[in-house]
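hey can u check if this looks right to u? its 154 residues, i copy pasted from the old doc so theres a chance i mangled smth
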Amino acid sequence: MEGKKFFVKDLEKHQTKDVIDSHVNGNLTVIWRDWDSIIPNHPKMVYVSSINPGEVKGPHLHKNRTSYLTCIHGKVVFIIDEGNNNYKEIEVDSQKPVLVCVPNKIASAHINPTNEISRVLVLADVAWKPNDNEMENVSFSDYDWDKWKGLEKS
């Protein structure tokens, strides 16, 4: 893994208020600002990835791209390959926003353990192009996938 590590960072969340009577009407979550030092290479692509209920995306890795992920709807479990048969499970949801960094050449899988569609906002430092062969499917053959089967979805 060439010394690269994933990270998880809490995101700023601010209440928004109505312009007439100042009641709280929602919130604003800061994911990235060009002057923050969270993402060293400014994003070249931003997209939303949806994960259907009970489904898994991956595992896969990106050969060149570092991805920054935040759950904007629902719940997702990111499984990151730390090497040496170690996997980090990071459960995230849209209520307590965090930014998860998955560096290039580090494999991950994304699981939706609920009965609702989940959505993940992705900021990438390399833009995707059709047929660019930048993503590689991998196998977490020593990972316990069975723990996600038959899980009561909430």
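The chain has a mean pLDDT of 89.
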